[in-house]
Automatic annotation (TrEMBL):
It comes from Aliirhizobium cellulosilyticum. InterPro entries: OMP_Chaperone_SurA (IPR050280), SurA_N (IPR015391), Trigger_fact/SurA_dom_sf (IPR027304). SUPFAM superfamilies: Triger factor/SurA peptide-binding domain-like. This is Peptidyl-prolyl cis-trans isomerase SurA. Its EC number is 5.2.1.8. Residues 1-18 form the signal peptide. One of its GO terms (molecular function) is peptidyl-prolyl cis-trans isomerase activity. It comes from the Bacteria.
Length: 313
């Protein structure tokens, strides 16, 4: 099952980026890679810490080695958990976010990359940061159902009484069709697999025959995603799903697994209590993301920290 992808706004002043082309001598000295910490056998180097110090400085936040190291420890814990439950966004998603951020600052990705490199941050460090910022909300949503524990009957009734109208949303029944691409062959065959996935959409026989259809092709798998309401659609798939015709398929998308599309098995308007709770949760999640906080972020991270082996050096 997938969850809503919510990302915090990456607040970096590009004027500060452009002005910060001289690397601090302390940062430069730290670029000689020693080990600053080890998190569950994953090393964080002094070079990583130096890049984060530079990154914090660009954000005009407190920028010292201890703050940078603690941020990287938290991000490493998140990245390990993201990998464990296989909920990472794809490299293409990260690259697209990087490009949008550059465009919003009237730069090409190459131009922004050069500024980041010259400032001592590096493009890859920023992209690693983006990947966690995009993927982590998926875990929070999957685990806590959109930012909180389930609403009690009393809470749900209270919210519905406060609302002028009972919430209505669209309910989709979805199947995920995956044209698998092994990582070792990704560069060699991804375009071929994309062409195959595109061609298969026009021949898709419908959800009832999906598995039989997949069996006629090489390395194609089908996942039943079940019932998903509009507020719970992931941000990267939502526009594709909403553009698809009823009982049709979405456009293809390149992901970490290969090339995918979704089949719309059924869709309908619903206004029951489950739908109302989904809408209210989406509203609450939107408010928490706008404020830059999620009440379960710290709870989940504290749990990971309590189980982790962290060696600070």
């Amino acid at each position: 099952m997938f969850g809503v992808i919510g990302t915090r706004r990456l607040a970096i002043a590009m004027a500060a980026l452009a002005a910060s082309l001289v690397i601090d001598p302390i940062v430069a000295a730290a670029q000689t890679s020693g080990v600053a910490a080890v998190v569950n056998r994953t090393p964080i180097t002094t070079a990583d810490v130096a890049r984060r110090v530079a990154f914090l400085r660009l954000q005009r936040q407190k920028a010292d080695s201890n703050t940078a190291r603690e941020q990287l420890i938290d991000e490493t814990l998140k990245r390990q958990e993201i990998a464990r439950v296989k909920m990472s966004v794809s490299t293409d998603d990260v690259d697209a976010s990087f490009a949008r951020f550059a465009a919003s600052n009237k730069m090409t990705p190459d131009q922004m990359g050069k500024i980041l490199d010259q400032a001592g941050v590096t493009s890859q460090h920023f992209k690693n940061f983006i990947a966690v910022q995009m993927s982590w909300p998926r875990l929070l949503n999957a685990r806590y159902g959109g930012g909180g524990s389930r609403m009690s009957s009393q809470e749900l009734v209270t919210r519905m009484m406060e609302s002028k109208e009972k919430p209505v949303t669209t309910e989709y029944f979805l199947k995920q069709i995956i044209f698998v691409v092994p990582p070792a062959k990704r560069n060699a065959i991804i375009n071929k697999r994309k062409s195959e996935a595109e061609a298969s959409r026009s021949k898709f026989p419908g959800c009832d025959q999906a598995k039989d259809f997949a069996a006629t092709m090489m390395d194609v798998s089908v996942r039943d995603l079940g019932r998903v309401m509009t507020p719970n659609l992931p941000d990267d798939w939502k526009p594709l799903i909403e553009k698809a015709s009823p009982n049709g398929t979405t456009a293809t998308k390149i992901t970490e697994r290969g090339v995918e599309f979704l089949a719309i098995c059924n869709q309908r308007q619903v206004s029951d209590d489950v739908a109302a709770e989904a809408v209210f949760r989406a509203e609450d999640l939107g408010k928490s993301e706008k404020s830059g906080t999620n009440p379960n972020d710290k709870k989940y991270l504290d749990e990971l920290r309590s189980k982790a082996q962290i060696d600070r050096r």
